[in-house]
Specification:
By secondary structure, the protein is an alpha/beta fold. It is 29% helix and 27% strand. It contains ten helices and 14 strands. The chain has helices at 63-70, 93-99, 120-130, 136-149, 166-178, 196-213, 224-230, 248-253, 258-265, 306-310, and strands at residues 10-25, 28-48, 52-56, 78-83, 86-87, 103-106, 184-188, 216-221, 233-238, 241-247, 270-271, 274-275, 316-319, 322-324. Helix 3 crosses helix 4 (136-149) and helix 4 packs across helix 5 (166-178). It is globular and about 65 Å long. This is ATP-binding cassette domain-containing protein. Keywords: ATP-binding, Nucleotide-binding, Transport. One of its GO terms (molecular function) is ATP hydrolysis activity.
Length: 329
């Protein structure tokens, strides 16, 4: 695990990041947007060099959109994404392209992110060609090296994506991200579609590579067990907002937010008396087209009061390095 954040240098700072998607009417863009999907709202966190920050939440909570917006794959609506002091959201395309090799992403579905008409060697070399790194012979040698690093064989260079298993494709996704020797890798649900045994192989490989290559990881997932194993700090997302953040051990020892407690209780745990009781959240997640007023979780929270319905909770430190957005935490 990484050292305490105070002893480390901030590498990426996300400040008040928001992303809205326009929803148009029957006439398309002619009369402008009628509504907006509030995918990410006022999200702030810091990535320290060499650590793994886990972003957890239910499907539709805005985790993937946060990752894509940070990397500039989706334009920022408002807020700042500062990498080594530079605001990526305001950089001209030419300058942003130079930083692309330092900021890479592993996508949730590796097969859809691999061109089925190209051999793996050409797919992995493509990033080196785009950034004009080395000549053809050296690029080929770099591909052979990265295949070995992620646990694949040299002969895989000549195969097509459909000839690989799910675990091997995920290794290829990692290889494509790592071949540029990035400093930050955003991992978007990298093991969610894999068998448990393959999950452990990928996670162990990620931890080993992080130590060897000095990587900083933003790990996006909905799997509580996975994020507990790999993360140094964790941010809990609900309806586009981070509602709690703490070091991993502190968060699991004493979760403060009702939503975090409900997520943790949903993980099956067996005691001497059998399966432990879980907290069942009532109702459905509100639509991001019209988020609730006040606390966004009040429609499903067992502790909600009139204050929660009318007043948004402040982001405050309830314990050292432990922040929560809840009136009653």
């Amino acid at each position: 695990m990484a050292n305490e954040p105070e002893a480390r240098k901030p590498l990426l700072e996300v400040k008040a990041l928001s992303k809205k998607f326009p929803v148009y009417g029957s006439f398309g863009r002619l009369f402008g947007a009628k509504q907006y999907v509030h995918a990410v709202t006022d999200v702030s966190f810091t990535l320290y060099e060499g650590e793994t920050y886990g972003l957890v939440g239910e499907s539709g909570s805005g985790k993937s959109t946060t990752g894509r917006t940070i990397l500039g794959l989706t334009p920022v609506t408002s807020g700042e994404v500062r990498y080594r002091g530079q605001d990526l959201a305001k950089l001209p395309p030419k300058q942003l392209r130079k930083l692309r090799r330092e900021l890479q992403m592993v996508f949730q579905d590796p097969y859809s992110s691999l061109n089925p008409r190209k051999r793996i060697g050409r797919i992995l070399e493509e990033a080196l060609v785009i950034h004009r790194i080395d000549d053809r012979q050296r690029r080929q040698q770099a591909v052979f090296r990265i295949l070995q690093i992620v646990g694949l064989q040299p002969e895989h260079y000549f195969r097509y994506p459909h000839e690989f298993s799910g675990g091997q494709r995920q290794r290829l996704g990692l290889a494509r991200a790592l071949i540029l020797q990035p400093r930050i890798v955003v991992c978007d649900e990298p093991v969610s579609a894999l068998d448990v045994s393959i999950q452990s192989q990928i996670l162990n490989m990620l931890r080993e590579l992080q130590g060897e290559l000095g990587l900083t990881l933003l790990f996006i997932t909905h799997d509580i067990s996975v994020v507990r194993y790999i993360s140094d700090r964790i941010g809990i997302m609900y309806l586009g907002r981070i509602v709690e953040e703490a070091p991993t051990d502190a968060l699991f020892a004493n979760p403060q937010h009702p939503y975090t407690k409900a997520l943790f209780s949903a993980v099956p745990r067996i005691s001497e008396r059998g399966l432990k009781e879980r907290t069942v959240l009532k109702g459905e997640i509100p639509s991001p087209l019209s988020p609730p007023s006040g606390c966004v979780f009040h429609t499903r929270c067992p502790l909600a009061t009139d204050r929660c319905r009318s007043e948004a909770p402040a982001w405050r430190e309830t314990k050292p390095q432990h922040h929560t957005a809840c009136h009653y935490a």
